[in-house]
# Entry
Amino acid sequence: MSELALAEATRRPAPRPAIVDAAADVTTMIGRSLRLSLRSVDGMITALALPIMLMLMFVYLFGGALRTGIAYVDYVVPGVLLVCAGFGAATTAVTVSSDLTTGVIDRFRSMDVSGAALITGHVVASVARNLVSTALVVAVALAIGFRPSAGVSGWLAAVGVLALFVLALSWLSATIGIIAGSPEAANGFTFFVSFLAYPSSAFVPIDTMPSWLRGFARDQPVNTVVETTRATLTGGPVGSVAWHAVLWSLGIIAASVSASGVLFNRRG
Amino acid sequence: MTTDLAIEAVGLAKSYGSTSVLDHFDLRVPRGGVFALLGPNGAGKTTTVRILATLTRADAGRIRVAGHDVGTQRREVRRRISLTGQYAALDEAQTGEENLRMMGRLLHLAPRLARRRAAELLERFDLTDAGRRRVETYSGGMRRRLDLAAGLVGEPEIIFLDEPTTGLDPRSRAAMWEIVAELATGGRTVFLTTQYLDEADRLADRIAVVDGGRVVADGTAAQLKEQVGGRRLDVALAATAGPEAFATVVRRLGPRAVTADPARRTVGIATDGTAAHVRALLDEIDAGRDRVAHFDVHTTTLDDVFLALTARPAPAEVRPIATENPIATEKRSEHV
Ligand SMILES: Nc1ncnc2c1ncn2[C@@H]1O[C@H](COP(=O)(O)OP(=O)(O)OP(=O)(O)O)[C@@H](O)[C@H]1O
Ligand SMILES: [Mg+2]
# Structure
């Protein structure tokens, strides 16, 4: 009998405005992606252990050889933070791509769940993963001698810029994940993003680079974020680079959000 | 506008690149009951289901599902259907219960209702204990049941099931049959695909046989059997009749020969089962009364229909795709 009553209740003409339903779908998909993230052992190891190893490697292996004016650990931590976050966000391309190969996506589609909801779920989970790993890397950095001079506002600014950039990269990665034919292809994007950290001031000052590279190194998105993070944490002059960092991130977000919607609908 | 048809497809066509998968595909599925789309591997069953369930767009054709146009009223269609595909559509790392609850939330049930619905479906599909485990620990049969349950969370009008019993052991298969039969009550329509004749025979109120991207026959199981003759005459030639004699007989019978087994020198012929017809056939095959060793008349099975419709050496222009598809041919020979 309760079967009947329940059947009546579960019939689904949507009495709510579409926007409420859409928001509900986003919430559901965020929950899904967070749960799947937490349960992916490989994913968690990549997200947590790798950044810490990177941090230790840069500080101990390269730290002695590099002269940057301030203690190398203080110089390099903003760069490593960014590499870790960037790398973590880039893995979202792989996550999205392999998710799209599973049959469950067809079911979502046939239930009229939008691509935007699905992708937002992935992006939010990616940002969450990366904020946790960033916090961990900062803790390790502090433990091995990172002594930033920033006050509360400096930290907040640094976290804000980083988080915005992680959001942008995550969304860009998700878009790449939709385009990529396979998770392996999507993986290539991770390398591309990690590579962008080298022609930047993340590990060595830009003046030490060949002159033809300096212009690119200075203006590319990764560098603007590294410089902003470093300036806010070590109390240096922040200047216009912060605006560049913010604009880059917002631009990437805008482009990715619109592209991902179109691409998702076209696929399949 | 609302008709008594759950699904109506006229002139459906779909190709991938230069490969034509469906062509001049027409289908009418009445509301209520079980409808089976029967066909060999590669016949285009999955493609059809995906088009009807709004996942793939057809190249041509007019398609209405649950009274709405699949091309222009996707959302309306989606609200009324559910699809359980050929391969499980579940999150492996979520538990059975979480998967079902997620479906409920995506159908915009209140959290409490989604939870209740999940519990109820787990119970109905005998998964209550497994509900707390991750799907990756499930057996094939459990996965299928959960997958089907996931398609039922929202009380759809039309339920698409793509090969619901492929890969199940006989017991799970029988259990699935029971479930499917139960689903098709209260005006609901179950549209399933299968390559198993006994499944279609046993479950379906109506059957469409698809081969090479077209519906080659449709009707009730009885009507289909009628179509190839209500009965089949199996004739075994004597050992003294050589292979050439056998070949001549088969050639002379042409399309009336439903089966032919040169090794055992047997040939199956459609007949209405009357003495006059059987006698005439025997005389035709064996005018000298020295070739036929023995014969046997029995009721046509859906197997005969299937073979007659899909495996007969047809003129090449009728089914170019089927004859090009090695998997289809290979699978078909299993039915012989
Ligand atoms: N995305 C695609 N790209 C190219 N060819 C495809 C695609 N999907 C299906 N086909 C081709 O269409 C034909 C019909 O495929 P379909 O999956 O519909 O068959 P089916 O009847 O479901 O077979 P099975 O019983 O093996 O599941 C096959 O020859 C297949 O190779
Ligand atoms: Mg199929």
Observations:
- Chain A has a mean pLDDT of 84.
